[in-house]
Automatic annotation (TrEMBL):
The keyword Cytoplasm belongs to this UniProt entry's keyword annotation: yes
The species this protein was found in: Staphylococcus caprae
Catalytic residue list: 107 (cysteine persulfide intermediate)
Pfam families, per database record: FdhD-NarQ (PF02634)
Protein's name according to its UniProt entry: Sulfur carrier protein FdhD
Gene (UniProt): narQ
Reported function: Required for formate dehydrogenase (FDH) activity. Acts as a sulfur carrier protein that transfers sulfur from IscS to the molybdenum cofactor prior to its insertion into FDH.
Compartmental location: Cytoplasm
InterPro entries referenced in this protein's UniProt entry, alphabetically: Cytidine_deaminase-like (IPR016193), FdhD (IPR003786)
Higher taxonomy: Bacteria, Bacillati, Bacillota, Bacilli, Bacillales
Amino acid sequence: MNKDVSTDQSIVRYENGELFETEDNYVTEFPLTIMVNGEEFATVICSPTNMEELVLGFLASEGAILKRDELKSIQIDDSKGFAHVELTKSLGDRFEYSTKRMIASCCGKSREFYFHNDAAIAKTSMSKIELQPQQILRMMTQLQSASVIFKQTGGLHNAAISDGGTFFEHRQDIGRHNALDKLYGYCIQRHISVRNKVLIFSGRISSEILIKAAKIGVGVILSKSAPTTLAVQLAKDLNITAIGFIRDGNFNIYSHPERIKAN
């Protein structure tokens, strides 16, 4: 069962020279401790929705599992904030660092798992997808339309995965990595191939986000915001098409423009 992603609570607001009591809607921050084979693996600070997808996508993107059938079971106890995962194998020596890490919702350097296993897990994209400009604009419009809770709270990252046509799945979280992990977990659960899919993202395309896209295995990532220089270099190296500043019917292609076919 998922908890509420946001809640109404009393606040004091200053407006037009006056202070007054009112209510505001803001997001829920939830610590989820992931136990793997009875051992504490990580605590992820997240929005308490689609938590099974989050756990599955997180474990896959961190290299704890390499395929769906390595997972025996996942049980979410959201009353206590635990996810109990049983694998068909031990984690072995794949993880040289200690477990029991806190994966903060703000991501960035606080996300201590990041970059440790990237060389082994990030994939050079083999995607053959080709997109028309109108498909790109439509996918960004779909993401913005789906971002209802963000419009209410301003406190969530939004992401979606699509094929540019009829397939479109949206997820949201206080952590940008978490939103992508939920989408990855959704696809793993349902045996949906991600190779010829597109990630649509609400925030900046940083190097971490680009590497996350590579770990998932998609060939295209879209954002209404800008990429960083390192993200563009990684996109070029990993054969990923990075597109940013998708606004007002326009966009910039920063890497591998050959996948975009204008009429």
